[in-house]
Amino acid sequence: MNKMNVVFTKMHGIGNDYIYVNCMDRELDNPSSLSVEMSKRHFSVGADGLVMICPSDKADAKMRMFNADGSEGKMCGNAIRCVGKYLYDNNIVNKKKLDIETLSGIKHLVLDTDDISGKVKNVTVDMGTASLNPADIPVLSETRVINAPFSVGGREYSVTCVSMGNPHAVIFTDDVKGLELERIGPEFENHHMFPERINTEFVRVIDHNTLEMRVWERGSGETYACGTGACASVVAAVVNGICMPDSEVTVKLIGGDLKIVCSKELSVTMTGSATKVYEGSYETCEY
User: Hey, which end of the chain has fewer CB within 10 Å, N or C?
Assistant: First the structure.
């Protein structure tokens, strides 16, 4: 059995941590299995998943992201900010406006650098336009799911379903800290109404410009942050009349804050930090 070293960079966007591998010259042969192996906390590197930074013939680079269970995700708002930081800080792309190809289309990034170090500290991402169309999410419903009753685990919830290129179910609640998310999250994720599983956000409204959120991500469980989930939560807040369109909303997550703006047409931008933790080399079977 051949052994190989995978050179990686550990990065996080407000606590949503991934293992980043530069694949501009060669992609990993089996990133799904490698993501499972390297993501195990306490027993390996530990992460919410693995991200390959790859060449693209239609953008500055392509992002492929894999969850901790090996499933490939279409998009991750926190991860894509770190991809932008990696490309700029390592002089792979020497400009502050980047286009990144994802399975959810091309996303546009604007980089904000530190005056002293010159390194990227914050990134604004044009997340595109959210969709409430059931087929886009997908959710098994003939009509848009906005504040609609759902029976999950023997309890009734009011759910709003949003696609940010990946599927989200948003539930507004008076308490997010006391949730038994380890029990409730899998019940939502594997609910029969969501044929491709679902990311689930539980959101407390602090005021019209501030939300508090916990998230259960399909394939990863509870994470410290979810960029697309924060965007979906603000979209849900706008369509339910909780937040105003075209106003900046702060979404407070376990790992930190994201700034989200959702227009009347449901186009969304997100601003947040991108942080490098360390670089390393991981010995594994050849992937």
Answer: N
